[in-house]
Amino acid sequence: MSISSVNSYSTAQLQWQGQQLKSTGTGSASSSSSNSLSTLFNSSTSMTSQLSSMVELTKYAMESMGLSDNSRVTFSQITKYREQLLTGFNDSVKSGLSKIGVSNPQDITFALDKDGKLTASSSNAADQKTAQAWLDSNPSLGKDLRASLTSAGIDSGTTVSMKVSSTGKLSVVNTAQIAIQDGLDASSDQSAKLRAALSEIGVDLSTPMNFTLTAEGRLVVSGEGEQTSAVNKWLEENTALADNLTAQLKKQNVDSSAVSLRLGATGNVQVTVNNSDLTDAQEALNKSSLGQTLYSGLNSLGVDANVKFTLQVNTDGSVTVISDSADQAKIQQFFDDNPSLVKQYQQIEALSGLDDARKAMQISPSEMRKRIQVESMAAWWSGSDNASSYFGSYSEGNMSILAGLNRSV
Fold this sequence. Notes:
This protein has a four-stranded antiparallel sheet with strand order 2-1-11-12. The protein starts with 13 loop residues before the first strand and ends in a 5-residue tail after the last strand. The chain is an alpha+beta fold and 409 residues long. The protein is built from 14 helices and 14 strands.
């Protein structure tokens, strides 16, 4: 049994709001139902048709639950299954909509080259791709940034990397410093060995100790102190950390005079790379409002977390997103790209219709039996030649069938 075969029994009005699918409790023109349950399950509709529809809905529910025809199922079990589907649907849609656009612009690094082209990089591949597409469609932003830096005296050949905050503030990223620090962190045992040696010498690292790298590639303590000579002697005899730092500087084309190290009571050695060009670039960016343009542009690619919309199931099985939100087209595309979620929604809607049908048919077995008997008699009588019409008279809880005379002459 297909979903389309039970759509006509569904009147549950479901709306996405508060990041979950909720019942609105009312019908509307936007319902995907072609016939409402209020029509199908009322006193003017034959009891036989109502029972047949109820059986059809129940069979669909059993098939959705993966049960065979000879299985037994209760309405409580069907309701529980529907709630499970609803929870899964809510989680999937919430997660899917959150991934539309750029999930976290603050985690993206933007590199500005000499020609004013911005390149995005992020550990989140989807964010990187989406951000880059937006940057490519807005090339003037990068050119304006480069012009701003050039007017501040920054060499046009200097590549500047930056990040943007939620307030639109651009912060220069010292990529060389980050790369060198990563190289030192990869050999954390060198920091641990240095700390252990300093402890044996009697150095109290509650106040961090600073180091510099000489032109000859030797680490020495910055300044003078009681244990300076002993520490420098140990560093001269144990060159692994100095050798590692020298190799990292060579990779990043950084002069040793621009580097300083610090070791505290915990953690690895921390490196600082001084770069006057980047300092000047930061001052220039602090005066620019282009960061706000960048952040608002990337942020506009996403979907409002508090968006409200209704899904209307079409005759071909697709859904139409009905919403006053500016994000309506993005949400429509999301469901077009996720047919499995559309199918899940159709199941939820159909099973919601079953629950409505159960409530609508809450009449006693004796009354149900009477209605079926009356309908059977009416069907027989209308097919006979003794009368051309019939009508029913309901009085004191009983229905009487009265035949109309055939007045043809």
